[in-house]
Amino acid sequence: MSAAPASGLKPPAKESVATGSGGAVSSVNVYATRAGIEVLRHGGNAVDAAVATAAALGVVEPYSAGIGGGGYFTYYHARTGKISTIDGRETAPARMKPDSFTDPSTGKPIPFPEAVNSGLSVGVPGTPATWRKALHDWGTMSPAKALRPATRLAQHGFVVNDEFRAQTALNEKRFRNISSTAKLFLPNGELPVVGSRFRNPDLARTYRQLAREGMNALYRGEIGRDVVRAVQHPPVTPGSDAKIRPGLMTAGDLAKYTTLRQQPTHTTYRGLDVYSMAPSSSGGTTVGEALNILENFHLSAADKVQALHHYLEAGRIAFADRNRWVGDPAFSDVPTEQLLAKKFAKDRACLISPTTTLTSPVAPADPRRPGDGCAQGTGTKERYEGPSTTHLVTSDRWGNVVSYTLTIEQTGGSAITVPGRGFLLNNELTDFDFTPLSEDVPGPNLPGPGKRPRSSMSPTIVLQDGRPLLALGSPGGATIITTVLQTLVNRVDLGMTLPEAVAAPRISQRNRADTDAEPAFLQSPERTALERLGQHFVEAPKAFTPSPEIGAAAALEFLADGRTQAVAEPKRRGGGSAMVVHPNG
Ligand code: GLU
């Protein structure tokens, strides 16, 4: 991180744990959490508050989320006791083909950074449609009202903190290549100064237009025209020699975009009901399969080493199956139910030994043919996905709960800001596999027209006896899955409180030889004990923080005494913000 000259202003104070009643919000940013709480105080419900929080994150976390991206929304409706989801994933344009990420001049996949920094990687945004759908189906407020706190925030600005500066610094080089992005995020050609006020009047205007005209201003109107122009003709800075490929998106692609109302994934874990996101996200099936595997073992704090060993091995196996089977179910037959079958998990659990470690890549098994679970073979390698994205949770005084993860994929997305509009476009289409899994198996996640790239987002809600107990999720690419899984194991099996479960050092195994680990874990006695069993750890890659981190969770617990506990990260990403409407109430 570059030395940060400081100016005088300070961001509002924040807490990582808040307990009380009347509704709760947790997110990675204090301004965003406050926007959600403001809406709850004005009589809004959890859905209104989730949209308000997300719109505010589009202002203060513009490199992770915003109307140029997509996400997945999970909702517990107190009156019916039902869990529903909205799949607001970005889709590929109609002109996208399985080999669209192949360079015709070389016949090889386009180098990954070139794909990221391009119009080609921009998927049709799903976030505005998600907000519209959620408010229409379950909210009480108009989009205009739900967007109000965020619009004010964009207009008046927020105080730049170390995190925002560091995330800008990480992107500085590529931001300079796009004139609209440099103009907005590198004011006067420099990194934003810590303690200064960062304003985004273009975004305030865009939010006002969406409030006036509805989300169709983006899907069928002026904002959409600007999006398409930016994708097809990325505004490369004059004099820059960066090679920025144009994209394939048209106005027709925007007009055709729809969110999907899908059944959530469901599994049980030690008597709890765990709901999450179905494909096109791999979150629900992979967290669910790993939990089902773990249910075959007794895990407890009394033997933390064995508990962590089993957690790592379950992750290894579940990722092997994820990579082989999960993609957009509209394009291939994704065995969602079979991946979540207890019988399949029991077969897979027989691979795990308490005294040795599996060799990755572990081969996938076919969930449609249970009984093959112990077969060993060759697996496929999982590509690294960096940390980005953002997660929020909300609840209200009526007992409704939202768990919502949204993203523009890489921190800083495609680096293309829509000129005059104040928001970045995603690079979500780089979540597709660029090449077939093997010569015989094309795999479920190759690009295709109108297709949704496989995600790892896992907005999760856990019920106990039919009532909410936990809501949680995290950013972090494929490590989202392990962060949600580890937090659940910490809370349910290892006897930690939710704040302890979130704060605990993270390790992430995704069917690779090495397990990514946070520094605090690398210094722990468990590390040595697990290495004796054959586990191998490496420090998690550094992203934009001085210290390597895995994920940045936001969570809620509904306590036995009727109060709600909102939990944010105490340290990761500079610390999150948890608030309740009536503290201690
Ligand atoms: N594109 C990722 C996904 O959908 C999220 C981005 C990230 O968290 O790195 O899983």
UniProtKB/TrEMBL annotation:
Region (Disordered) residue spans: 1-22, 360-390, 435-459
Metabolic or biological pathway: Sulfur metabolism; glutathione metabolism
Post-translational changes noted in the entry: Cleaved by autocatalysis into a large and a small subunit.
SUPFAM superfamilies: N-terminal nucleophile aminohydrolases (Ntn hydrolases)
InterPro entries: GGT_bact (IPR051792), GGT_lsub (IPR043138), GGT_peptidase (IPR000101), GGT_ssub_C (IPR043137), Ntn_hydrolases_N (IPR029055)
Tagged with keyword Acyltransferase: yes
Keywords noted in UniProt: Acyltransferase, Glutathione biosynthesis, Hydrolase, Transferase, Zymogen
A Pfam family matched in the record: G_glu_transpept
Molecular function per GO: leukotriene C4 gamma-glutamyl transferase activity
Claim: Coiled coil is one of the keywords in the record: no
Subunit structure and binding partners: This enzyme consists of two polypeptide chains, which are synthesized in precursor form from a single polypeptide.
Family annotation (NCBIfam families): g_glut_trans
Family designation: Belongs to the gamma-glutamyltransferase family.
Name assigned to this protein: Glutathione hydrolase proenzyme
